[in-house]
Design brief:
single chain, 444 residues, alpha+beta, Alpha-Beta Plaits, Ubiquitin-like (UB roll), 31% helix
Length: 444
């Protein structure tokens, strides 16, 4: 099973993350081709292999074009974004570890255009990106929006992103999701996060490091934080949002066979190597194929089936591993349902909020359970009726092969074939034409 480890010895930001993942050997042309599916203009990408302090790595930059303002005005007219012309923004800011928390900053003659969470999610949903990439990207933005809302004492949809919602940060977050999809990584782990100290200046004045949004993201997350004797910011809200949302656990690197190592460089001179290191490896032992999960349960007897279905969708979209309902009888023999949600520890608060917000329940039970999982990988089967992704799960000599429902459903809708016939045809081709998607990226 492929796993990834973030070694954040010098903090983490969005551009450092994309640079480090690309440095693992992802096909850059394939990455850019996938990124174009976002249908977002006004920028160009610069990917440069370079060396800093004797260490080779990748420098990733998003260059916002001069035509960006014209693009923004068109998007404003179409209702895709909101522009606050009482503020201004310099789109040519430098990526000093991505000051994406700073909603200032430098003034220019153009209006400062902003997006709230709904605007960003609408942009992502309207794209041609894979569903898994869309969901991963939206989860990161939602976590950042939640933290900003808490810091500024506003509702989540009252938060209008400036730096975080700008083109470069959207590209960083979506680009990270694309890279993880191309790498075929099943689990992501992370070291303790290292940040500096002191103060930085933003629109709200002089604020301490770690910055408030980062501190809020880390609150109640069980993510260890180390403060270094470096007088600057090392962790940005984008970087913190990425690791909190995507990483299964934090601490020492798990036992694994190391396949590749990549470095993504920050832009600040911190007096030492300013980089994010990522390690791509393979688990070999079945003992590692277990994980601690949180099980949330609640009994509901006065919520409609439509609301229960909507709640399930919201929980899955927010990263729940499993959601299901069980028919039960409550006191006085009232028919009811028990909602069960299986999620990662770092997602517990988010799942709890969704359940309280969307249903009538006023109490939720929680317990820690251990889940055994099989090694999983996705392969592509080429059939006469189209390409279908297939999930292959293994554990020792046990092997299970399952065609992806969405791919089979799309073929059935397109061709008019019965869904069961599509499954049968995919199964017949299973051993004939198989392309392993693990080879969708190239080695260094």
């Amino acid at each position: 099973m492929k796993v990834l480890y973030f070694d954040c010895f010098s903090g983490i930001s969005g551009d450092m993350t994309v640079g480090a993942l690309l440095d693992l050997g992802i096909d850059k042309d394939l990455f850019i081709e996938e990124l174009r599916k976002l249908n977002l203009g006004g920028y160009e990408i610069r990917i440069e292999k370079t060396t800093k302090q004797g260490i080779a790595g990748t420098d990733f930059n998003v260059i916002v074009s001069e035509e960006y303002d014209d693009l923004v005005k068109r998007m404003e007219r179409n209702g895709h974004i909101k522009c606050d012309h009482n503020h201004s923004h310099d789109h040519n800011h430098s990526h000093d570890n991505k000051h994406d928390h700073d909603q200032n900053h430098n003034l220019n003659k153009h209006g400062h255009c902003t997006r709230n969470l709904m605007d960003i999610e609408a942009l992502i949903d309207a794209s041609n990106l894979k569903k898994s990439v869309k969901n991963m990207s939206k989860r990161v933005f939602r976590e950042i929006a939640r933290a900003e809302a808490k810091v500024h004492n506003k509702s989540i949809n009252e938060i209008y992103f400036h730096e975080v919602g700008a083109v470069d940060s959207i590209v960083d977050i979506v680009g990270t999701s694309i890279c993880l999809d191309l790498l075929g990584v099943k689990d992501v782990y992370c070291s303790p996060l290292h940040d500096g100290q002191g103060f930085v200046e933003c629109a709200h004045g002089i604020i301490p490091v770690p910055v408030p949004a980062v501190m809020e993201i880390l609150a109640n997350s069980h993510i260890p934080l180390v403060i270094e004797d470096v007088k600057t910011e090392l962790i940005t809200p984008t970087g913190a949002g990425i690791v909190k949302t995507l990483c299964r656990d934090f601490g020492s690197m798990p036992v694994m066979i190391i396949d590749k190592v990549g470095y993504g460089f920050g832009k600040k001179d911190t007096g030492r190597l300013n980089a994010l290191r990522v390690v791509l490896g393979t688990f070999l032992s079945h003992d590692n194929l277990t994980e601690d999960m949180v099980l949330l349960e609640t009994n509901i007897d006065d919520t409609t089936s439509e609301i229960l279905g909507f709640t399930m969708e919201k929980l899955f979209e927010s990263g729940a591993a499993d959601v299901f309902y069980t028919s039960i009888y409550m006191k006085k023999n009232r028919p009811a349902y028990m909602l069960s949600v299986l999620c990662k520890k770092q997602d517990e608060e988010k799942m709890t909020d969704i359940i309280f917000r969307e249903t009538s329940t006023i109490g939720i039970r929680r317990s820690i359970v251990k889940r055994h999982v099989m090694e999983r990988e996705i392969i592509k089967v080429n059939t006469d009726i189209g390409d279908v992704r297939v999930k292959v799960s293994t554990r020792g000599d046990i092997k299970k092969v399952t065609p992806e429902y969405e791919d089979c459903r799309n073929i059935a809708m397109k061709t008019g074939m019965p869904l069961i016939s599509v499954y049968e045809q995919v199964n017949r081709h299973m051993d004939i034409k198989v392309q392993d998607t693990k080879n969708s990226y190239k080695g260094n």
